[in-house]
UniProtKB/TrEMBL annotation:
It is found in: Endomembrane system. SUPFAM superfamilies: Periplasmic binding protein-like II. Keywords: Cell inner membrane, Cell membrane, Membrane, Signal, Transport. It holds the Pfam family NMT1_2. Its main location: membrane. InterPro entries: NrtA/CpmA_ABC-bd_dom (IPR044527). The keyword DNA-binding does not apply. This is ABC transporter substrate-binding protein.
Amino acid sequence: MTGMAGGGYVAGSDKPEIETLRLGFMPLTDCASLVMASVLGLDQKYGIRIVLSREQSWSGMRDRLARGELDCAQLLYAMVYAVQQGIGSLRMDMAVLMNLNQNGQSITLSRKLAGRGAVDGASLAALVAAEPRRFTFAHTFPTGNHALWLYYWLAAAGIDPLADANLATVPPSQMAPSLAAGHVDGFCAGEPWGARAVREGVGVTVATSQQVWPDHPGKALAATAAFVRKNPNTCRALVAAVLEAGRWIDASAANRDAAAEAIASPAFVNVPRELIRERMLGSYEDGLGRRWHDRHRLRFYGDGAATFPWLSDGMWFMTQHRRWGLLQYDPDYRAVAARVNRIALYREAAELSGTPLPSSDTRSSILIDGSVWDGRDPAAYAASFAARKSA
């Protein structure tokens, strides 16, 4: 490669094709590395300028990306694969440039349900079995991460989300108000919205997403395949800048605190800093008196493990789309993931930013129900859940 020295852009064939990038984000704690790449001037170090655009909904951001009104975006990882497969939208070839974070989402139930004894999956299942009405649980998008964490957690407790509950789509920032108004009985969303429900006394945290899958993938830095094809150097520079930002955030509690202060501002998440800070540092309270420090807290770098676009991560989301009937057939899971996740481009950006690389493009994980996911036989893995859905 030419044009980069010591991580910074100099000149040559690797010059970014465009210097100004319109980058969409949602007001969530896990937008932090995108914001800090701009705030710390890391984008300029690599010869680009990030112009951040605060979006109001996942579907709106997806559509703006498709229309070319945004160049790249913080998207729900699972949503990227839904667009790639044409689930719930027109099919479009997509690209995952990197994973932006791991962990840090939560499942919240109303204080009313908690008062009736629903404080975990097993006690909620007992209440669901005894209740004549169906409870309503909200997620942020039907094909997105939060829907899949919610479904997986419910199913692991013996609750079939499709047969035993009503499901609703609610914007992240409206989760706590919807819970307070009684429109929903629980929800799964990114922070700080679970923390807000606890802080306002309307909800209790009954599970974190890292309990469902420790060190699970979070949001993706995504673009259309056409944009990446036309602007590979620009995309490489963007990934390098965001990698450096994630490393800076994870480097110390002081940096996390500074990042929390930055993203709490009205331009980004627009909440009090403390609402972001505590769970960003791994300090949790459930609203029922229990406090703990989560060793699988939200992380933005993890020595490169949190940002690498693992093929097995992309395949897992497709298996869950298949499990819940969103995908009507078994695709060539690995081939699709290899097209979407731009590992070669990521490796180049990792080299520029000094980010360690794993020895494999897949990894193995144990989820909440004891199932092992390693990407070896995704079709069999997806089929194995038929009995578990209504177990």
